[in-house]
Write a structure and sequence with these properties.
The protein is an alpha+beta fold and about 60 residues long. Helices cover about 25% and strands about 30% of the residues. It has one domain: 2-Layer Sandwich (Macrophage Migration Inhibitory Factor). The model has no long low-confidence stretch (mean pLDDT about 95).
């Protein structure tokens, strides 16, 4: 069973996540022939102060 784990900064809308849940499963279907109904997608929302970019937190960068 293919499992797509997506780490994103907190604050994405339910619509954003729904769109990814609809589109992400196609990649393992195309790449390895996995049945779409076996593909799982999981989001891990990361607090902005816990995400670093070039030595600075995303929160400090205003992301």
């Amino acid at each position: 069973m293919p499992f797509a784990q997506i780490f994103i900064l907190e604050g994405r809308t339910e619509e954003h996540k729904r769109a990814a849940i609809e589109k992400v499963p196609q990649a393992p279907v195309d790449a390895v022939g996995a049945p779409k109904e076996n593909v799982r997608v999981w989001f891990q929302d990361v607090p902005k102060e816990s995400w670093g970019i070039a030595g600075v937190s995303a929160k400090s960068l205003g992301r």
